[in-house]
Amino acid sequence: MSAAKITRSNSWWELSATWLPSTILPHLSLLDRRNVLEVGSFEGGSTTWFMRHFLAHEESRLTVVDTWQDTRDPECYGDEDYSTGNFDAVLQRFLSNVRNSPNSEKVRAIRGDSASALASLLPTASSSFDFIYVDGSHRASEVFLDVSLSFRLLKRGGIMLLDDYKWVGERQSGQRPSDARVEGGCGAISQMAELDITAAIDSVLASVPGGVEVLHCGYQLMVRKLGESVDVKAPEQLII
Ligand SMILES: C[S@@+](CC[C@H](N)C(=O)[O-])C[C@H]1O[C@@H](n2cnc3c(N)ncnc32)[C@H](O)[C@@H]1O
User: Tell me, what's a Pfam family for it (predicted)?
Assistant: First the structure.
């Protein structure tokens, strides 16, 4: 497949691609069978990189999740199709980029909100992914869910890469009160500073069973899962 067939409007992923291979290689043999999950694909910058580098083994698989629709994300993507609400055009670009990249038969895409999509994977895919890339929403409450659910989907010893670990959005910085910490309590919620992404990610990772090992800490964070997650069964309704 030729890289010339890939159409993109940005170069976000290229920043990661400069340091990631040398950082990840000591921890992950890219030729092994790999089960990979990506949250947030946009037009497939990171997706197509993972396809080229993580899917060599015939049994390797990549699952990706994205809404490809307006989520009122606090980040402005600066993409003409996104800003004019033409999300299907971005989805078509994603599909075309994936079809024109190696190992496309090993990719499955789920269009939907990440919280619902990740939760729906839990009953069958708990603790089954070797590598998870989280690059979806930039809203702390959603990042919190993405990281919590992804963590349960990650194998013990598996690696999670979190984009935008140090992202500070305009809305957050513009609205933050000067004394960012207002004492908690129900009445204070409206005056409290919005949680930033760093705090959302830290609060999940500091409280997961078994903890994590930090492998890289910069604008992106890369961690290894140390403990086991409890197996989750599909919910069942009890007859009362
Ligand atoms: C920064 S872009 C991803 C960029 C991509 N990983 C790359 O390297 O080119 C973030 C993506 O997350 C998606 N997204 C935002 N909120 C989401 C949510 N709640 N559920 C699923 N996808 C979401 C957006 O539609 C967007 O395509």
Answer: Methyltransf_24
233 falls within a domain? no
Q: Are 62 and 47 in contact (CB under 8 A)?
A: yes
Domain total of the chain: 1
**Protein residue whose Cα sits closest to atom 25 of ligand 1:** 68
Minimum-distance ligand 1 atom for the alpha carbon of 42 = 27
Q: DSSP 3-state assignment of 139? A: coil
What confidence tens digit (pLDDT) does each residue in 194-230 have?
889 999 999 999 999 999 999 999 999 999 999 988 7
What is the reported pTM? 0.91
How many angstroms is it from 187 CA to the middle of ligand 1? 33
Residues with CB under 6 A from ligand 1: 12-13, 40-42, 45-46, 65-68, 71, 73, 113-114, 135-137, 142
Residue 203 lies in a domain: yes
Q: How far apart are CA 150 and CA 136, in angstroms?
A: 12
CA of 40 to the centre of ligand 1 (A): 3
Output the domain CATH number for residue 165.
3.40.50.150
